[in-house]
Prior knowledge:
Largest sheet: 8 strands, mixed, barrel
Distance between the termini: 103 Å
Order of helices and strands: HHEEHEEEEEEH
Radius of gyration: 32 Å
Strand content: 15-25%
Shape: elongated
CATH architecture: Beta Barrel
Structural class: alpha+beta
CATH superfamily: Sortase
Number of domains: 1
Amino acid sequence: MNEQEPEQHEASRRARRQAERAARPARPPQRLTVTGVLGELLITAGVVVMLFLGWYIWLNDIIAGNEQQQAAEVVQEELQDRWERGEAATPRETADPGEPVVAAPAEAGEVFGTLIVPRFGADYVRPIAGGVDLRTVLNNRQIGIGHYLETQMPGEVGNFAIAAHRTTYGAPFADIAELQLGDKIYVETADGWYQYAFRGLEYVWPTYVSVLEPVPREPDIAPTDRFLTMTSCNPKFSSAERIIAYAVMETWYPRAGGPPPELAGVVEAAGR
């Protein structure tokens, strides 16, 4: 056999394959349709919406939470300054706890204290203002926690009730469902620190306002204890229900005697 024959056969096969490919009809270009364009737009819009929600719910909460944290540290300094100027109800030389001092009711929108919850983080502190108006208090990036004006003040016999978001606007109560029996919750005012102990959670309908009574859920009973009630929406990203955290006051620390030992780091962080 001639040595060139295999090469010629191979060349012939390649030529036939090329001819067959050339003879195949070319695929027509895909046409743009309204349905196709709309589908592409919807996919793009979906991606944009998901990115926005990620920013709005997660990143924005971090940013707003940091702003509220910094604002609370400024409030802590102002509370100390008020006490040093003699504007608080407790005398500057009084360090004996005794009966807790109760400040005058706060006005709507007035920042009068801070909430400190070690369970929410070693440096967690947020401002508290009078009222639960969304625009001026709960959605305010410098506040976030509001006091129901019809309820009692910190340290007062009855129910000191507050509200905040679990998501968005800094989410001050993001971890409210993580509270455990006995957890300490502190409310700081110009007079000192009021220490409450967590007792339990409850889930109720939004219309179940009896949780704000002087004795929560017991409108016909006169109070003898000092309660703290924290309210927020449930489940997260919904307002279908309310999650309620109850606590009872254990003691208080007049400012003259310094903060509770557990809060030493938080106080130092505020520059005091």
